[in-house]
Write a structure and sequence with these properties.
The structure holds two protein chains of two kinds. Chain A is mainly alpha-helical. Chain A has helices at about 1-10, 15-40, 40-60, 70-85, 95-100, 110-130, 130-145, 150-155, 160-184. The longest helix of chain B has about 35 residues, at about 25-60. The chains are: A mainly alpha, B mainly alpha.
Chain lengths: ~180, ~70
């Protein structure tokens, strides 16, 4: 934790090494997170560029995060995705992950087949059943491992509100997955 | 596998998803890294120029601030 704090302090002073270290540490994660939300690799890449450009501008202006750099970066990415998603249609979501998991396996076991069906159902439900808020909260909580408080800070809502959004989202996923299995 | 999908099962599927997700394509990441480093260099180079201008104007107005 001290490393992150000292890195942040150095970055605030526009230390080149610290800024590059921050980019190296967080850019891949911000890309994944953004890709999960917008489903477009090019847009995700552009947003990564904008997130770090904004961070740099903030530091240069003597502003920017004083604590919790990770939440700050995710928050910036989240706002950029929300701003741009108004003009875009969601297309190919996390399916890539399912394909990658099974690549190279010629004879999947019964468990792997079941898992794959579940994953595809989960991805489909996330894209079709959840509201934008529910999807964002579930991604931040389950895929990015943020706490309720951090998630609340990133999406600009109260913790209690996040709990409600999360529970409703999970309930929808549970229902969608249950229905999917009944159809098998 | 039961018809009732528990939260634990959902969490487990998310964990599997995380493992399988595509990462940042190396070429794109490297291009962004270079771009970012250029911006950093521009800002770091830009700062002393601004400061020198301030110092210059302060010297002209009788200030004794040094770079």
């Amino acid at each position: 934790m001290n490393d992150v704090v000292s890195l942040l302090k150095a970055a605030q002073k526009l230390d080149e090494e610290a800024l590059t270290a921050i980019f190296d540490q967080y850019a891949p994660a911000i890309y994944k997170y953004t890709l999960r939300l917008c489903h477009d690799p090019i847009q995700a890449d552009n947003i990564v560029g904008d997130v770090f450009a904004q961070l740099l501008e903030q530091f240069a202006a003597g502003k920017g995060p004083r604590t919790n750099l990770r939440s700050y970066l995710y928050q910036t990415a989240y706002h950029l995705v929300v701003d741009r998603s108004r003009d875009n249609q969601h297309t190919a979501p996390l399916e890539v992950a399912v394909d990658r998991l099974d690549r190279g396996q010629l004879t999947p076991t019964q468990t792997q087949i079941e898992e794959r069906v579940m994953m595809e159902a989960l991805i489909s439900a996330m894209n079709s059943e959840l509201t934008d808020d529910q999807r964002h909260v579930i991604i931040l909580r389950f895929l990015e491992d943020f706490s309720l408080k951090e998630t609340a800070d990133i999406v600009g809502k109260e913790v209690n509100n996040i709990k409600v959004i999360q529970n409703r989202g999970i309930a929808k996923l549970r229902k969608a997955l249950g229905l999917q299995l009944e159809e098998m | 596998m039961s018809l009732e999908t528990s939260d634990a099962e959902i969490a487990q599927i998310f964990t599997r998803l995380k493992i399988g997700e595509a990462g940042y394509p190396p070429r794109l990441l490297e291009a962004r890294r270079i771009e970012f480093k250029q911006r950093v260099a521009e800002i770091c180079l830009g700062r002393p120029i601004v400061f020198n201008r301030q110092a210059h104007s302060e010297r002209n107005s009788g200030g004794n601030r040094h770079c």
